[in-house]
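Feature request disguised as a bug: please show the residue count (382) next to glycerophosphodiester phosphodiesterase in the output. Example input:
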Amino acid sequence: MALKAVNVTDVPNLDQVPENNASLSLYSSRFNSEGLELNSEATFKVPKFLVIGHRGHGMNILQSSDSRMKAIKENTILSFNSAAKFPIDFIEFDVQVTKDDCPVIFHDDFIFSEENGTVFEKRVTELSLEEFLCFGPQREAGKQGKSLLRKTKDGKILNWNVETDDSFCTLAETFQKVDPSLGFNIELKFDDHIVYQQDHLIHVLQVISQVVSEYAKDRPIIFSSFHPDAAQLIRKLQNTYPVFFLTNGGTQVYYDVRRNSLEEAIKVCMEGGLQGIVSEVKGVFGNPGAVPRIKESKLSLLTYGKLNNVPEAVCMQHLMGIDGVIVDFVQEISHAVDDMIIKPLNEGLREGDEETGTKSKLQFSQQELSFLLKLIPELIQH
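Example output, currently without the count:
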């Protein structure tokens, strides 16, 4: 890719995706509420507290000693429908576009495989759909797929072995085969090490938008991306679905300063008319003062990260006013949220006591909550 920065203001409002009024209310059957609302002012209302399955039933960490991180192949139809068995609202997954313009579900930039003792890598976006689907388990009975390896963050290359495997899938297939009541958080995946041409970004986003337009029907959809220009472009190319900007919240440093803090994330959202932020949870715990600033900007706030697999950390976020969490331990966290947050809220509402309905089993005074918020930045440094 040529090193050419994108000037989003130069892109016309293409409205690639037709308006679908039914999809503007992203209803979650788990709540007695009006659902998520995207109105003409581009605000986004999240009902109560969302639980979102990370790459479906949870991401794979091959070197983990926790069997839950290797239970089901991530980003597959099996993983998505396994997550749908639990009281969650959305699944999150990663979309890239093959060289022959097919949106597929895959997280990493490269696929690793082995032939005759030699390990080789292929960039996902440089493969055709047919080539992409040749890796791993095959749908056709008796057909053997190419071996599938994965490179870990520390540079090791391991066999991608999980307890229950499944084949790769396309975005269109995901819409067709996944429980229709489950919302999709579609992460628009781009390589951090490439500065993309504007025309290329627009083309990729239009290809993805076309599939969403054709297959989404009434399914709740959220777009998200770590790429600031892509996030702003998908908002400019369509106005049917809300767009969230993904950020590490300052826990990592990037050349693009827009990715380096929650304050910069707010600017990206305000400049591009986005509806919310998805932050690494440590970025929020390390800078809890950003939460009221995000709320004052009328933005929603979701989080992701390992701490979201800890029930107490999730409930703390609810108390802080965060709107939802992306989690790997779908069963454990969804049930914990139901027990500690959702059931008390619904019980209070059924009793007609709105004040009771705003409380959870974990109740703190304002003074105690203030103390905890001051303590959290110290805790996460250790």
